[in-house]
Write a structure and sequence with these properties.
single chain; 319 residues; alpha+beta; Phosphorylase Kinase, domain 1; Aminoglycoside 3'-phosphotransferase, Chain: A, domain 2; five-stranded antiparallel β-sheet; two-stranded antiparallel sheet; globular
Length: 319
Amino acid sequence: MSVYTTVTPEQLGIWLGQHNVGTLTDLRGISAGIENTNYFVTTTAGRYVLTLFEKLTAAELPFYLNLMAHLADHGIPSARPIPDLEGALLGELNGKPAALVSFLPGKDIADPTEAQCAAVGAMLARIHRAGLSYPARIENPRGSRWWQAVMPEIVGFLPPDEAELLRNEVDFQAAHRFDDLPAGALHADLFRDNVLFEDSRISGVIDFYFACTDALLYDAAICVNDWCVDAEGDIDDRRSAALLGSYHAVRAVDAREAEAWPVLLRAAALRFWTSRLYDFHLPRAGELTHAKDPGHFRRILERHIAHPRTLPQTVPGRL
């Protein structure tokens, strides 16, 4: 969500003429995030978010945009893509695929409470249940194949001990496949900055552009590794229990998932350690960019390796 591609008010004003959203009154770049170019857009009809996709292609994007629309239709507070005058959800602006989506109110939470973690767990399970009726499928773009492909590009930047940890964990995950676990459409990036709250209520779930088809509980592991850890990478048991207990109350976790949980936690930590290493050491030029600290997820991974965790007692399917 950095600004890599500049859009002027004049350019956007012409582009918005293809949509029934009034005329442009304000345009502001969004600096948070690292993958796409995003702007807040205000028109005489309301507020929106404009995204120009820097990596995803026009052929790939229907999966994400249609998923967002599908979830919104099923009561999930997802940003809804705004169709143009011909009904298309995807257009092109300044040579990049571009989409306009509804603006969602609320703000993200830096230091979540147990109650907020519980709300996130329930929302994630609702997303998974709604996603079961979504027919399209796409492989995880940041899964095992990607880790193996980019590892040779990354290890040369790392000290020997971290390079060894990365190689060993990629090999470990390659040996553990979860094709028999319940699978479906995932958000795959439901961090604190992608959930908006108004008071105690979740008012928005944003940034579905890493969504994919994979093991459902892997998505919960991603959430726990962000919502329920401290600065040192240790899991807060109370927040984890609240998130996973609320998740299980909406979508029951079975014994196969419980057995896989320690490995899924490691996979979720590896996924973000690897991607942050890649973005930190091999960045793209941008007008506004924000690369996040890779060391945070290395520490989380190291703790999961040293202290494997089972599901909390709030999840009856635990071992």
